[in-house]
């Protein structure tokens, strides 16, 4: 899965909505925008994991806590972030595990960013960066849980294909979502539905 999804994974690192997370001197407004964007994607995606979420801690509560903290300190809008709607269908355990692989990888990557965000923005596990810290989450145990699920459910050529395609579709949906948030507002006379063209975390 890593080889097939590497191109979109690299594009997402440079996407204008997420770029503030890795900038040398990030601004709080850009950080808040990235947190709101991730919230808008994770909230509707996590319930789609179904039984394949077993052994995994939900990240939606962490993102919600981060938004409450950041907005209570006057760092941005307190309005409810929009939620992504154009999401992949996950019709099999293998597909749901492909999606989980993406979401879990994002959480692992967030932990790697935490030090930089703490130094540059003063955030932390209990100060607007619970998601990036994976606060109170045992990441090693989650990795073992995911591996166990994969070994039980992704065992044939067909299930491998389903998992890989779902991982690609999840990344594409995230890229579409970020593109939608970044796209300049249209005038009321124009069709405001999200474009189906990708990529669209």
From TrEMBL:
InterPro entries: Haem_Oase-like_multi-hlx (IPR016084). This is Heme oxygenase. It comes from Skermanella stibiiresistens SB22.
């Amino acid at each position: 899965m890593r080889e097939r999804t590497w191109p979109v994974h690299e594009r997402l690192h440079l996407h204008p909505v997420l770029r503030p997370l890795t900038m040398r001197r990030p601004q709080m407004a850009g950080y808040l925008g990235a947190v709101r964007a991730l919230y808008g994607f994770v909230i509707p995606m996590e319930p789609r994991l179904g039984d394949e979420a077993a052994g995994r801690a939900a990240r939606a509560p962490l993102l919600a806590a981060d938004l409450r903290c950041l907005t209570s300190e006057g760092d941005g809008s307190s309005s409810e972030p929009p939620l992504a709607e154009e999401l992949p269908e996950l019709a099999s355990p293998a597909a749901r595990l492909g999606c989980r692989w993406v979401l879990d990888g994002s959480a692992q990557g967030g932990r790697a960013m935490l030090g930089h965000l703490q130094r540059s923005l003063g955030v932390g596990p209990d100060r607007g960066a619970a998601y990036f810290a994976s606060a109170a989450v045992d990441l090693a145990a989650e990795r073992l849980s995911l591996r166990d699920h994969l070994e039980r459910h992704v065992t044939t050529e067909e299930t491998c294909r389903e998992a890989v395609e779902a991982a690609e579709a999840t990344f594409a949906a995230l890229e579409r979502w970020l593109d939608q948030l970044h796209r300049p507002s249209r005038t009321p006379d124009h069709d405001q539905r999200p474009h189906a063209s990708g990529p669209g975390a």
